[in-house]
Amino acid sequence: MNLVARSSARYKAETLRVGFHIDGYFELAKWLWNDDRKVALIPNGNFCVTEDDRKCAVWPAWSKRNSCDKDLSEDNVMFAVRTTKKYHEERVPIIQRTWAKDAKHVIYFSETADAGVPTRVLNVTNVERGFCAKTFALLKEVAGDPVLMAYRWIVMVDDDTLLSVSRLMKMLVCYDSRELVAIGERYGYAVLHHYGYNYLTGGAGVALSNTLVKHIIDNGCSCGADDAPEDMLLGMCYSRLSIQVVNSFLFHQGRPVDYANDYLSHQQSVSFHKFNQIDPVEVYSKWLQVNPARHEEL
């Protein structure tokens, strides 16, 4: 029996596991390896992630993806940074030194008023993990303010998320903000079961159309607890409202050191997440900062 047929039969016979689905390539490789015959992946240098005429049989045409012949005004995008008092002086200045320089409209949402940032205050209590209350308070703030709803796109990020604003703008122009659109890095929970759902990881950053923001609030999506994982609760909301999220491999929940260099080398990455054990300014400069003199295709 060939591998495809055997794998199909095994899949139908197995008890489907409940859990997270994060890295599809790894999970497939592990599942194949756990077959009785221990199917191993065979590396072959002729299958390439970047074009190299000397050895490649196949390679992806990355330059032709996500390239739309339109422009998106800076006035159509608002960047919403979720932060808290203890990071106003530690993390926010890093954002302001890096990607915020390229963004015309950045609002720092916090539970604490701070004119030095400055912040926009949300009436919530900060929690150490799971920013559900803060996220939904932010979305309600946007949906209830005509000035904020005038932005076509709301890009929600953490205060330790690094972005390439110009690359993100090139991506957003390919989508219609009048539709229900959510773009980011897709994970899944129990997706093999009827109650499972996809969600977009919060740390990598999520771009929401203003139409979707209003739709979420108008349809009563909310948190079960203040410290619930906001990205998963939003994923449950998308599923209930039959909204298909848009997955992009250019968003990253981790730091560059968390990925194989060859995997990142062919990308024009849009985001990375977490400042710990790295120099975030150096990471931004190496992986995300766009030289205006150099033309890039996303």
Can you tell me about this structure?
- The protein is of the alpha/beta class.
- The protein has ten helices and twelve strands.
- It has helices at 3-13, 24-33, 92-97, 132-143, 146-149, 165-172, 210-218, 230-240, 261-265, 280-288, and strands spanning 20-21, 77-82, 106-110, 119-121, 153-158, 161-163, 182-184, 186-189, 197-200, 206-209, 246-247, 271-273.
- The strands form three sheets. It has a seven-stranded mixed sheet with strand order 4-3-2-5-10-7-11.
- A hairpin with a 7-residue loop joins β8 and β9 (197-200).
- α4 (132-143) packs across α7.
- The longest helix has 12 residues, at 132-143.
- The mean pLDDT is 89.
Short description:
The protein is built from ten helices and twelve strands. The protein has 298 residues and is an alpha/beta fold. Helix 4 packs across helix 7.
